[in-house]
Structure prediction request, 699 residues.
Amino acid sequence: MDALFSQLFAGLSLGSVLLLAALGLALTFGQMGVINMAHGEFMMAGAYTAFVLQAFIPDAGISLLVALPVGFVVGGLLGLLLEVTLISRMYRRPLDTLLVTFGVALVLQQLARDVFGAPNVDVRAPAWLSGAVPFLGMNLPKTRLFILGLAIACVVVLALVLKLTPLGRRIRATVQNRDLAETSGVSTRATDRLTFFVGSGVAGVAGVALTLLGSIGPTLGTNYIVDAFLVVVVGGIGQLKGAVIAAFSLGIVQAAFEYSTTASLAKVLLFVVIVAFLQVRPQGLVSVRTRSLA
Amino acid sequence: MSAGTTDVARPASTSTTWWRRPAMRVWVGVAVAAVVLFGLAPALLSDFRLNLLAKFLCLAMVAVGIGLAWGRGGMLVLGQGVFFGIGGYLMAMHMKLSDAGPGGVPDFLLLYGDGVVPGWWEPLRSPVVTILAILVLPAGIAALLGLAVFRRRVRGAYFAILSQALAAAFAILLVGQQKVTGGTNGLNGFRSFFGYDLADPVNKRMLYFIAAGVLIAMVVVVRLLMHSRYGELLVAVRDQENRVRFLGYDPANVKVVAYAIAACFAGIGGALFAPVVGIISPADVGVIPSIGFLVGVAIGGRATLLGPVLGAVAVSWAETGLSEQFPSFWTYFQGAMFILVVAFLPQGFASLGGLWRRRRRTPGDVPGDLGDPPAPTAAPVGSGTAPDDDAQHAADAARTAGRHT
Prediction:
């Protein structure tokens, strides 16, 4: 029983990391059909933001709290820059955006390597996040709980923004029918830019959160990008619901496989499960209904 | 502007010299390539350089397959490293086993493993089984995945992401199963290739000639394939999958065949890469090298026959030359090439000639879209379909580019 619960927590914890990584991706992919390979590098930018801030703010707790909004802005601005310069040129060519953003990812990675050095660096965790919380006979690490809470908070805030604000209305309208939204007076260009800012900003926040789990390096983004994409594929190009369910399911499934086999075999098995799942639901868990044949 | 009209206005066969005819161009190209690869290169290059060229040719084999699947079939294959790796590892395992002698145990198994040869390794002692496995296994895995994915009409970005996830999982598996795969170090230190001593420069030269011959054969196969009914179907599936379906064909089968052939080519490339370079490791097969294969194809011209080959060789050549002196500069350069070529010259450098020719023939007639011609990609994800005219136009453009190569 204990083993089951601790595996469940490991899965939830893994799922929350996946969710943070995939949340922004689901937003931009869902709205624009754009595949942003540089999303992982935006996470890396967020992580290095936390690292840099710590050099100026000696208190680890305060620097973490400052890093979250600053990481959001850093990631968001990078995303905005990418959208305005490159992605806006290639809306009808989603596969090409993948290659272009991969080029951007390579450049950003090398930039990080040149600025911060190739070796990994560490960000000190605040004192109030050290240790663990006893729960039902288990010890749950506080950092993991913090990330789980952060992921839930991000989802709630995003859901509220999408549901209640004018921006959210415009985003939903653009996702459901871009042309009709444009006809109805929504500036889809402006909406795209804002969506990309928000989506990339969430990546920055995710990067800050990742500094709590281990050291960070130039390849941080590469480690998460494939998993984040899988979450989006399984979740479907819907709204946040698909990403949330997919992230936690994949996290739990992978934790279960890791428990019964090895970590490396678990990845392969997870892949097989996803391909099998797509046999049942090729469009993912949640998808926007459409009558188009394509 | 479209290829159709220019061809009607100018019946190619009567007014042009024989070697300019579309059908002859490729054969002339192949003949030139044969003279260069078999005559000039061995005569002019040192043994070291020739071995380097052999490595580039192995990478170009992967590019030929990507050109078929991506350029002609519209399937963005992000995980060719998997098939490259399967071919490479199969060959490497055979070479390790034959180095160890009959019944012997390869050195790294003693180092990391249990000191016994795993059961599924045993068949690879036979050269025939190894070669068959290299030909069949990558194609079989690709066919299985392709059937699962394409039958359910998963396509576009979803397929690209899945193929990439496969590469990630494969690389992680290789590192994780260190006992049988050598882990991060991979397999290296081969002494012989089917009984021929690899330390002997003459045998290294032989490897080069094998690579050159195989590459030329692959280009000829793709050329023949593209001018068959199957080739027409493949391009049709890329541009208007539903029309093909309504005509009574199954687009899934068409795609699976192209994906399997591309995987087979990548496997052969990997199988020759291992003895030529002397090492195969997870670093050659992961996500980054898998996407790296695409650079040369994109730069050379994805929808053309020789574009991917020339692009792959040129990019690897530049990488070897530049990355030793300026490692960080090379990554920036690679990234910049990706951005600039895909964003502003989606048909690659192979399309430059055609664009220039058309511009010269009809000055003022060409719309100023040189920087942004429609790309022969699959239909956009989600609800937005490209207008038919666009797709048609893209097909024409791609075909023109192919013919002019």
Summary: Residues 184 and 338 of chain B are 28 Å apart (CA to CA). Confidence is low (pLDDT under 50) at residues 1-13, 364-405 of chain B. The beta strands of chain B are 187-188, 192-193, 196-197, 279-280.
